[in-house]
């Protein structure tokens, strides 16, 4: 019984390490060869887990072989567009200038309902607002609005909103995030002093994020919110 438990733990750890080694794309949208790889890995791992009589090596060696083949295939796809087109396929335009291409949908075996679902997933309630839609190689649908339907750009309105980047999450669930804090050029003493000045303790903060305009948004454990200027915009370095 303990042997079966140990084997399952070991192979589970191997599976996690393998997926991490294959890259983060394996955790998102799959390309066709990546989808096949994931199914194959699951089948390879499951055999030695369920059968104690099967040597562990019979599960580990095929995993190593799959990693090598996947690495070679990934490199080949990066180096050659032709190989990538054969292995992963190519994006297909299914809506052009607001007109749905029925022939392209038939070629991809995608129904009109599937297309409308993808368009809604892209944030469009009315397909008439879609000027261009593309079925990507991984099967997802990218949709873009027509010119009259899109929001105006700040440059078109002669506005300069300034730099906008990712906010830094300084506190999460009552715990200081030292890596993010270092990127702001500040230390924990600065953060605690800043919060103490407003009668707040770090342990009472559920989430605190510092945006690129220097404003700190704080949500407390009780759900209340506050926002104040913590840094000058010119001091933002990330």
Structural write-up:
With 238 residues, this protein is α+β, with helices and mostly antiparallel strands. It has helices at 2-21, 32-50, 57-79, 81-88, 102-108, 112-121, 178-183, 188-196, and strands at 92-96, 99-100, 130-135, 141-145, 168-172, 175-176, 205-210, 215-220, 225-229. Strands 6-5-7-8-9 form a 5-stranded antiparallel beta sheet. Strands 2-1-3-4 form a 4-stranded antiparallel beta sheet. The longest helix has 23 residues, at 57-79. The mean pLDDT is 86.
Q: Main sheet: which strands, in order across?
A: 6-5-7-8-9
Number of domains: 3
Low-confidence stretches: none
- Record field, number of beta strands: 9
Oligomer: single chain
Describe the global form: flat
Binned, the helix content reads 40-55%
Q: Which structural class should the secondary elements be placed in? A: alpha+beta
SS element count, helices: 8
* Element-by-element helix/strand order: HHHHEEHHEEEEHHEEE
Whole-angstrom Rg? 25 Å
Structural key phrases:
9 strands, CRO Repressor, 4-stranded antiparallel beta sheet, alpha+beta, 238 residues, single chain, 3 domains, 5-stranded antiparallel beta sheet
Topology:
Elements (H helix, E strand, L loop, with lengths): L1 H20 L10 H19 L6 H23 L1 H8 L3 E5 L2 E2 L1 H7 L3 H10 L8 E6 L5 E5 L22 E5 L2 E2 L1 H6 L4 H9 L8 E6 L4 E6 L4 E5 L9
Antiparallel strand pairs: 1-2, 1-3, 3-4, 5-6, 5-7, 7-8, 8-9
Helix pairs in contact: 1-2, 1-3, 2-3, 3-4
